[in-house]
Amino acid sequence: MAEQLRAVKGMNDILPPESARWEWFEDKVRALMARYGYANMRTPIVEPTPLFVRGLGEVTDIVEKEMYSFEDSMNGDKLTLRPENTAGIVRAVTEHSMLYDGGKRIYYIGPMFRHERPQRGRYRQFHQVGAEALGYAGPDVDAELILMCRALWRDIGLHDVRLELNSLGQPDERKAHREALIAYFEQHRDQLDVDAQRRLYSNPLRILDTKNPAMQALVEGAPKLMDYLGEASLAHFNAVRAILDANGLEYRINPRLVRGMDYYNLTVFEWVTDRLGSQGTVCGGGRYDYLIEQIGGKPAPAVGWALGVERVLELLKELGSIPPAPAPVAYAVVPSATVLGNAMVTIEALRAAGVSVLMHAAGKDGPGSMKSQFKRADASGARYALIFGEDEVSQGQVAVKPLRDASAAQTLRPLAQAGEWARELLNA
């Protein structure tokens, strides 16, 4: 016997009925994006490695430790499975000159890849939904994207998430803050862990995002970027806050919120929860006004967010808010092969009228007993059993038996008029 092959660790199969919940969530996302005027974009899963090195930053954890990168054996190209999709969206928008006639609002749904230690809510293949508004400089679009998240939480029944907000200012303001951070941490070098010492001169802002409990007091005392923001940056941040306040959206200003990519400036935000342990960030994003130019396009502002689908669904499950997988409206019981042709004509007519029908499939020894078929019909969750008995079919009829209402009577319906009585099944 050949060795059984298994999925790569941290890259999971999504099986029924769980896959139906994913489809439900994706449908909610698509409806939301349509309301806000965001169009779908689909980019390749494999991108040139320099796209992420240049876009995310060489000293980010993603680029240093987590990317699945390889060399194309045919031509030597350096390629990477996308670890996130903002850089890919920007590459596509730039490559196809999409901003020549004004800004674009884009969303995406798809798998991403990072070589991390698999744990609850964090996998090596994971899925993101993202929204990107490119070509818009105003704080109104920052606020719109944040309010869009709140609308999604309401649509899917998600609660127990809170918004954290910060501003990273502009590059010159960050530079002044960076110098102050380095000077501060140099004075406390003996308290820095290995990661912090490695980042001290390459990316000291990321030290503020440490999860090391031993460094929390040190980080709390570090210089705050907010104190280095100029008038324009503060005005942008306060305008975002004013819109959120006007819409009654509560938030907490978190001066340590820096995000994990180097491309952010001005507004950054995260939606977080305490219910998923260390993987508490459900959605995050911010403004990235310099990324388009970094990737080779003409300078243009942009802002966006991404959420982890697995984390959102895990949180819904934790809260007991995730809906059950949908059941068929009807289950077709076909006790004899002699009626199969008539049965399938009727079943197809019902399906064409919008009725979901699960048909009993015969085994190699025949269709199976009526008892076993009714057992499967009940287990399917269907509201009705359609019984294509030989006597009924010979009279041009099918028996319709309610399965979820013991007081409801079984009735007969004409095979030739399935499209008409289909509405009864749907509306019951």
TrEMBL record:
It is an enzyme of class 6 (ligase). L-histidine binds at E84, N85, T86, R114, Q128, E132, R259, Y263, Y264. It is found in: Cytoplasm. PROSITE patterns: AA_TRNA_LIGASE_II. Signal peptide: none annotated. One of its GO terms (molecular function) is histidine-tRNA ligase activity. Its EC number is 6.1.1.21. GO terms for biological process: histidyl-tRNA aminoacylation. InterPro entries: aa-tRNA-synth_II (IPR006195), aa-tRNA-synth_II/BPL/LPL (IPR045864), Anticodon-bd (IPR004154), Anticodon-bd_dom_sf (IPR036621), His-tRNA-ligase (IPR015807), HisRS-like_core (IPR041715), HisRS/HisZ (IPR004516). SUPFAM superfamilies: Class II aaRS ABD-related (SSF52954), Class II aaRS and biotin synthetases (SSF55681). It catalyses: tRNA(His) + L-histidine + ATP = L-histidyl-tRNA(His) + AMP + diphosphate + H(+). It comes from the Bacteria. The keyword ATP-binding applies. Keywords: Aminoacyl-tRNA synthetase, ATP-binding, Cytoplasm, Ligase, Nucleotide-binding, Protein biosynthesis. One of its GO terms (cellular component) is cytoplasm. This is Histidine--tRNA ligase.
